Q: What sequence folds into this?
């Protein structure tokens, strides 16, 4: 007997097979994202569009762990930071510390690999626990990494970090410019969105979801529960590390503040507010976060920003535990019911 024999897990697979659930809505969204730079200013293209895609991709890595694996990790920004620091140390920077000057086509795969391995190592420590204990372990790792890079000047340049880190000029394109950078972030986000959507219905994805629902049963029928969970951390690390590279190119720098505890919690807030059940959720949460971060400070004291984020989080979760996705589905269901109600009230003709 395998996980595919379980009706609770195999039913969605039997209905949809390996087909990706792309419908007209996703097609319209893709067209809108492609045309977005044509109608948006450079600020909105880079600061809103680019940042939303990057932050959403980091939150997507958390969605893979929490939504499919039932594992809430607060170390995804740490993984992104590991990749970002790898880019700064092995690449070029203007801080006068490290900056080995390796070519981008070497350091980019290296940074992704190091970030993914770091995520797997975090997973090896965390998967032996569950629930609040996993949250606390990953939070402790994130906090330890923050203080380590802040106090280490020989390798990480301490509090100052690294500055002057720009994306490469490749194929005759300066990827630092708003429009090329936006399309680069869009390509990365689209790739991982498709991969995660497909992985949900793959053999590994179904096994991971079954482990989330009943790990004791999966262990009893021969599955290595810990190995599946660690591999999920590795895959999530690939996503977070790739987004971390884009983040350091977006900011042009990386410091200890990039990986502090607030940043780690922001990723959790983004994922939960957007919704953890579908890959589109983290991007919805990231869009709301980016808009609030850029425009709320015009109305309130910047030091009160976390208060605003907290209030928005509480309001959304109060009305919809499934986040913005849940609100959308409630609205769609209500609209459909209202449209069908007149037809149901009609008496059948004799």
A:
């Amino acid at each position: 007997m395998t996980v595919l024999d379980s009706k609770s897990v195999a039913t969605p697979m039997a209905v949809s097979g390996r087909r990706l659930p792309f419908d007209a809505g996703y097609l319209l969204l893709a067209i809108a994202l492609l045309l977005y730079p044509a109608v948006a200013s450079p600020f909105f293209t880079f600061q809103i569009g680019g940042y939303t895609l990057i932050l959403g991709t980091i939150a997507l890595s958390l969605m893979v762990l929490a939504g499919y694996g039932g594992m809430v990790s607060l170390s995804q920004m740490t993984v992104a930071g590991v990749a970002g620091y790898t880019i700064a140390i092995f690449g070029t920077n203007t801080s006068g510390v490290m900056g080995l000057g390796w070519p981008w086509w070497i350091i980019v795969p290296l940074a992704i690999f190091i970030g993914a391995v770091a995520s797997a190592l975090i997973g090896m420590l965390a998967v032996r626990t569950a629930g609040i204990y996993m949250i606390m372990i990953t939070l402790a790792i994130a906090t330890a990494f923050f203080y380590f890079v802040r106090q280490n000047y020989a390798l990480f340049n301490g509090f100052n970090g690294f500055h002057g880190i720009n994306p490469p000029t490749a194929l005759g394109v300066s990827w630092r410019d708003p429009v090329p950078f936006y399309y680069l972030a869009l390509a990365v986000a689209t790739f991982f969105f498709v991969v995660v959507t497909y992985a949900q219905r793959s053999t590994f994805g179904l096994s991971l979801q079954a482990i989330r629902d009943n790990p004791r049963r999966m262990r009893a029928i021969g599955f290595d529960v810990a190995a599946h969970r660690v591999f999920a951390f590795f895959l999530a690390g690939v996503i977070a590390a790739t987004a971390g590279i884009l983040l350091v190119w977006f900011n042009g720098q990386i410091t200890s503040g990039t990986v502090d505890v607030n940043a780690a919690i922001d990723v959790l807030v983004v994922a939960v507010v957007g919704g953890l059940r579908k890959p589109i959720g983290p991007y919805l949460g990231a869009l709301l976060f980016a808009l609030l971060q850029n425009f709320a400070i015009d109305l309130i004291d910047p030091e009160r920003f976390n208060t605003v984020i907290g209030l928005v989080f509480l309001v959304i979760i109060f009305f919809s535990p499934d986040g913005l996705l849940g609100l959308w589905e409630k609205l769609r269901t209500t609209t459909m019911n209202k449209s069908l109600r007149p037809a149901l009230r009609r008496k059948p003709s004799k």
About this structure: The two ends are 54 Å apart (CA to CA). Residues 3-12+42-261 form one domain.
